[in-house]
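Extended Data, panel c. Modelled sequence:
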Amino acid sequence: MLKRILLLGACITLTACFGDSKEFLIDNPTEKPLAISIDNEKITIPAKETQNIKLEAGQHTLSLENGESVKFSVFDAWPRSGVSGLINPTRTRYVYVVQKYLAEGVQPTNENSDVHTLTIDGQTVTGPFNDLGSELFIDNFEHSWELNPTEAFPESMSSTSKDNYKTKIFRVEDFKHYYTNEFSPATDYTQDMRITESRYQQPEITAHFSSPELQQNLDDATKIYTAFIHADSASDQKDLLKEFEKQNREKWRNPKTGGEETTTYYEIMSNINHTMMSSILELKK
C-alpha cells in the first residue's frame, strides 16, 4: 500500500575506533546464531539480527563458519557518514526498495525511483526495486539505504513535502512478503513508461581493446586501481584516488580514439572509478 506523510509547517562497535574507519552492518538472516571472525576477532550475530562494526581502512580477513577465509579491503578515500555497506556471511540475496509516501488527498503520478523488473524464484516482479545480488560485501555507494533488513517501513512520516520517500534493503525472503502483502504501485505501469530489468552483475573492470591508446589508458588506470585496493591506509588510498582523478581529467576522459570500443572503454573506466569511491571490496584471487 502507499504510505502517507504527515505534513508539517514550512550499535555496537567491535574494533578499536582510532584512525580512519568505516562502519558496516553484518546481517544474519538465519534461524540460528552466526559465528564469524574478522582479523581473528570472534563475532556472534544472533538469529535474525544484525550487528554493526567499524573497520579501519586497509586489508582485512573474514573467516566464515564453513572454514572459508576471505581477504577484503576497506576504503576511506571518499568521505561518507553512517553505515557504508553490508557484510553478508550467508550470501543471501538482497533487494533495494524505494517506498513512496504521500500527503492525504494527494494523488500519485509516478514513483520516486526508476521502475525495474526482477526475477525471483521464477516470478517477475515490477516496481521501484534494484537487485543488489548476494555478494559477501554489498556497498551502498550506488544505492544508499535508510532502513536496514531488520527495520520496517514506518506507516507514516513527517515531512515539509507532499511527496517523499524512504529507502530500505530487504532480505529476499522478506521482500517476497513485502511485495505480496504491502506493496502497491504508485502509478499505472501499463502506461508509456520505460521499464528495464535489474539483475545484479559484478562491474566489469577488464577489457582487451584493439586501440593501442585505449588499452594503454586502461593499463595505466589498472595500475593505480591495483595499488589502491591493496593500500594499507586511508591516506595512501586518498592519494591514489586523487592521482586517478587527475589522470582521468587530463588524459583518459577524452581519448583521440573513436568508434564502438569507446562505449565499453568509458563504462570500464567509470566502474574502476566508482569502486575506488566505494567503501568495501572482496580481494578475489
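Residues 9-19 have pLDDT under 50 and may be disordered. This feature is highlighted in the accompanying rendering.
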